[in-house]
Specification:
The complex is a heterodimer of chains A (473) and B (237).
Chain A: E1 3-9, E2 17-23, E3 29-36, H1 42-45, H2 54-59, H3 66-81, H4 87-119, H5 130-136, H6 138-159, E4 168-169, E5 172-173, H7 179-187, H8 189-206, H9 211-216, E6 223-228, E7 240-244, E8 250-255, E9 264-267, E10 276-279, E11 289-290, H10 293-299, H11 306-319, H12 329-348, E12 368-375, E13 378-386, E14 392-398, H13 400-403, H14 405-419, H15 427-439, H16 444-447, E15 456-462, E16 467-472
Parallel strand pairs in A: 1-16, 2-15, 6-11
Antiparallel strand pairs in A: 1-2, 1-15, 2-3, 4-5, 6-7, 7-8, 9-10, 12-13, 13-14, 15-16
Helix pairs in contact in A: 3-4, 4-6, 4-12, 5-6, 6-8, 8-12, 10-12, 11-12, 14-15
Chain B: E1 3-8, E2 11-16, H1 21-27, E3 51-54, E4 61-62, E5 73-75, H2 79-95, H3 110-118, E6 134-135, E7 141-144, H4 153-162, E8 167-170, E9 177-180, H5 197-201, E10 207-209, H6 227-234
Parallel strand pairs in B: 1-5
Antiparallel strand pairs in B: 1-2, 3-4, 3-5, 6-7, 7-10, 8-9
Helix pairs in contact in B: 2-3
The chains are: A alpha+beta (473), B alpha+beta (237).
Chain lengths: 473, 237
């Protein structure tokens, strides 16, 4: 008799979801689904609002990545106004966005994932958490908390407050940077670099423990997408969209972000509120691609900063030019963080960073605008249409976690196939199914536009849909 | 001119014939809350936040439109009045769609300040959530009816100070809206001089300068503007 395993809710992720694993008559896994069970509806509730309010409204999508949404949203409004932010305004947006990348990457790696990596996926959940990490490896926990704090402080000091800041506005930023704030941020750079380098050293020394997981945690061929600058380096703020296949061959070299709709389609499945974007040229569901820290490293030639490039070389030596396993998101996230810190340092040392011309002004000059940036979890796209008075008529958001939807489903299936034996839900399987999703650091609140808790439920279903086994956390 | 003596909250005060309880209270340092009252333009008694008790009267009176009388005993502050005012404030919120976090007037809003002063921490009344529009057709300014509390300051300042009388009121009850020139889009109004006085006097984020993002101070307040009171005095209003 075939049946389905359901994991509900999934824990230590941002948002609410459940997993179902379908078994056939012989107890073999036939399919697995990662269901996102929450719904937000921001595309609808923003209809009728003045477009200048969009960055502030869109920031409310998430308390962890408000900055990412503000950046993409402000860029979309820039596009509607047909203006470029002033160079200093753009650079300050970059710094705030990178502060966001640092703090969110730190949250994902240290607070959510390091317990699995430190204690092993089968350790007692009572120990396998950030408090356990603080007891067993105080330096690791301290570094994670310190990095997150520093990233948050950058946001607070430049943009006004840590959560839902108001400093990123259409046309640039609201206020110029002061020398005092610049110096205060720069003072924290050496410690931030030391912290992330300690984490990288620890991860590298320990990563061989996880060969089995690296081989089965979403290890498959797919395309990757990310933003790159003119030189092909990682760019978290602007530049062009680059898409490479599993061998690193460019599927699209330099896509103007404003034309993303020509390349990306969005499929909707009845079992999830999360849309499934796909690469149009390959169709659905074959056009699966991944975004996020791993994709950024796979897509770019280099990061463009010295220490991160050095680590990137070692990364590629260990896992290949295009890393296929989603397990390596963790490793990539650390290098992404190192790069972000170096880039913040370089930007703040720029000669014009204290310039007071930080904002461009304009009215409504286009009916449509698209803003694309790199959020911690990957490429983020905001697309609005307005009327002549600048009132939003239509909005569409393509969120990083959405891009990864198909890949997350594939990864869950792979892990389930590897670990589900028989008809009961086993602890190791449960732990690993959760952990594989955590690799992608999905933010479901963002991507479905919930109230919800961070939690996971797994159900094992028979072919007729009866629940054979169920585990909840 | 006759001079009357009366008490407000037990304090002996005096005022001249024709003055309102609100004016006499202000002169004597007694603060009575109000959202529609604005020095320099005629009072209207629209918001009802300034309700006070007058000894011998069975009903509450709006201090901004009630003239003083000899021997009047006014209670401007009591637990019961605070409760009334809190409920009135809550009703102002419930009638439209106020979302402070993403409002241009956030931290610069008289309705928000009043709610804080009244200790209004949550809403018990059911929401009405009406469908209200935004008119952004004017090149400089916009009105978001979601945030309008119908204080009618805009109507009065446009009529009494600017002399344009672009603004007025249409419909009734819950459907009441301020309107420009018999309900045509603001941007098409032949009478609007684009002086911006309505935006200046609006206590909430209903009237705002276009293009302002949601940010602290994004609704600019210019409390130093002398024209309101001065012009009113010159015209003998």
């Amino acid at each position: 008799m075939s049946r389905t395993v359901v994991i509900d809710p999934v824990t230590r992720i941002e948002g609410h979801s459940k997993i179902t694993i379908q078994l056939d008559d012989r107890g073999e896994v036939t399919d697995a689904h990662f269901h996102v069970t929450q719904f937000r509806g921001f595309e609808r509730i923003t209809q009728g609002r003045p477009v200048h309010e969009m960055p502030a409204i869109m920031a409310r999508i998430c308390g962890i990545c408000p900055v990412s949404h503000m950046v993409a949203s402000s860029k979309a409004v820039d596009d509607i106004m047909a203006v470029e932010p002033t160079p200093t305004g753009a650079d300050l947006r970059r710094v705030i966005n990178l502060g966001q990348i640092v703090q969110s990457n730190a949250l994902s790696f240290f607070h959510l994932s390091s317990p699995d990596l430190l204690f092993g996926f089968d350790a007692d959940p009572a120990v396998r958490n950030i408090v356990g990490v603080a007891r067993a490896n105080p330096q690791l926990a301290k570094d994670g908390i310190g990095l997150r704090k520093w990233g948050q402080q950058i946001i607070e000091w430049i943009a006004g407050k840590r959560i839902h800041p108001e400093g990123i506005v259409p046309g640039g930023v609201a206020t110029p940077l002061t020398a005092e704030v610049r110096d205060r941020i720069l003072d924290g750079v050496p410690e931030a670099i030391a912290a992330v380098e300690r984490a990288i050293a620890w991860y590298k020394s320990d990563m061989l423990r996880w060969e089995e997981e690296a081989a089965t945690f979403g290890n498959f061929r797919s395309a990757f997408m990310g933003l790159v600058d003119r030189q092909g380096n990682v760019d978290h703020y602007g530049g062009w969209i680059r898409v490479v296949d599993a061998d690193g061959k460019a599927l699209a070299e330099r896509i103007d972000p404003r034309t993303f709709n020509d390349y990306i389609g969005e499929a909707v499945e009845p079992w999830s509120y999360l849309k499934s974007p796909y690469w149009k040229a390959m169709g659905y569901p074959d056009g699966m691609y991944r975004v996020g820290p791993l994709a950024r490293l796979n897509v770019a030639e280099r990061t463009g900063t010295p220490r991160a490039d050095e680590e990137l070389e070692k990364f590629r030596w260990r896992v290949g030019r295009v890393a296929g396993s989603s397990f390596h998101y963790h490793y990539a996230r650390l290098i992404d963080t190192l790069h972000a810190i170096e880039r913040i340092d370089a930007l703040l040392r720029g000669p014009d960073i204290l310039d007071t011309h930080v904002r461009s002004y304009a009215g409504i000059n286009r009916r449509e605008g698209i803003g694309v940036s790199e959020a911690p979890r990957g490429t983020l796209m905001h697309h609005y249409r307005v009327d002549d008075d600048g009132i939003v008529q239509w909005a569409n958001l393509v969120i990083a976690t959405g891009h990864n939807n198909m890949a997350m489903n594939r990864a869950v299936l792979q892990v389930a196939r590897h670990h589900v034996k028989g008809e009961a839900i086993t602890e190791p399987m449960l732990n690993r199914v959760e952990a594989v999703i955590r690799c992608y650091d999905p933010c479901l609140s963002c991507s479905t536009h919930a109230l919800g808790q961070m939690a996971l439920r797994i159900q094992l279903l028979a072919p007729d849909g009866t629940v054979l086994d169920e585990l909840a956390r | 001119m006759s001079v009357y003596t009366l008490t407000i909250d037990g304090k002996d005060v005096a005022g001249s014939d024709g003055q309102t309880i609100m004016e006499v209270a202000e002169e004597n340092g007694i603060d009575i809350p109000g959202l529609c009252h604005l020095e320099g333009i005629h009072d209207r008694g629209a918001c009802r936040l300034c309700v006070v008790e007058i000894a011998g009267s069975p009903k509450l009176a709006a201090a901004c439109v009630t003239q003083i009388a000899e021997g009047m005993e006014v209670t401007a502050h009591s637990d019961a009045l605070l409760e009334y005012r809190r409920t009135i404030t809550e009703m102002l919120f419930m009638e439209r769609n106020h979302v402070c976090a993403v409002c241009v007037a956030n931290n610069h809003c008289e309705l928000q300040d009043t709610a804080e002063d009244m200790g209004l921490t949550h809403f018990d009344l059911p929401r009405i959530s009406p469908k209200a529009d935004i008119d952004a057709s004017h090149p400089l300014f916009a009105i978001d009816h979601n945030r309008c509390i119908l204080c009618l300051r805009c109507v009065r300042v446009c009529d009494e100070i600017e002399g344009a009388h672009t603004w007025d009121v249409m419909h009734r009850g819950l459907d009441t809206r301020v309107q420009t020139d018999m309900g045509i889009p603001w941007g098409e109004s032949p009478t609007c001089t684009s002086c911006g006085k309505c935006v200046q006097v609006c206590p909430t984020g209903a009237l705002f300068e276009k293009g302002r993002a949601v940010a602290r101070g994004s609704k600019r307040r210019r409390p130093f503007l002398p024209w309101m009171k001065v012009v009113a005095e010159e015209r003998g209003l």
